[in-house]
Specification:
By secondary structure, this protein is mostly helical. 69% of the residues lie in helices and 0% in strands. The chain starts with a helix and ends in an 8-residue tail after the last helix. The protein contains ten helices and no strands.
Length: 173
């Protein structure tokens, strides 16, 4: 096992036990693991952002995510974008979340690895939340229903059609 794999294993093990720790203790433990990495390591910054995010400190989380992305985070990049957008939404900045997630949603599939493709539904879900917070309820509902349609045992085609129709049908206003 490489040093990177060992570090990732220990980070994953800590996350599995997050509920066993007080928030500050958890953040300190993540910071301790991050300190084992070189200064400015994007993965370590991402983990610190996620620790702050998961313990109720979204503003600090955004700073960590932004720095990790600015330093070229790979592998966890899509997760960082989703989590940063969610934090921005929680901080009352849903417009910025919509911008980030719309750009993420527009990335061509051939530029995404398998893990990033697997998160496409999460991009849509968090974008739907941000759209709803900006008053774009029909777009949010369309996106959420469109993402749900392929998962249903029946009515997939109908639901996908109705989801698209929400964007063109009058909204009654």
């Amino acid at each position: 096992m490489t040093d990177d794999q060992d570090w990732e294993r220990r980070v994953a093990a800590l996350w599995e036990r997050i509920d066993e720790h007080e928030p500050a203790d958890f953040r300190d433990r993540v910071a301790g693991l991050a300190a084992e990495r070189p200064d400015g390591d994007p993965a370590a910054l991402f983990e610190q952002g996620a620790a702050h995010d998961s313990t109720g400190l979204p503003e600090q989380a955004v700073a960590y995510y932004r720095r990790a992305l600015d330093l070229g985070l790979t592998g966890l990049r899509r997760r960082a974008v989703i989590q940063m957008a969610s934090s921005l939404r929680n901080l009352g900045r849903p417009d910025r979340a919509v911008e980030l997630l719309t750009a993420e949603q527009a990335l061509p599939a051939d530029r995404l690895d398998a893990d990033e493709k697997a998160l496409s539904g999460a991009v849509d879900a968090f974008l739907a939340l941000a759209l709803a917070d900006t008053g774009r309820d029909r777009e949010a509902a369309s996106l959420a229903l469109g993402a749900l349609a392929p998962l249903l045992p029946r009515y997939n085609r109908s639901l996908a059609h109705y989801a698209r129709a929400l964007l063109t049908a009058p909204d009654g206003s």
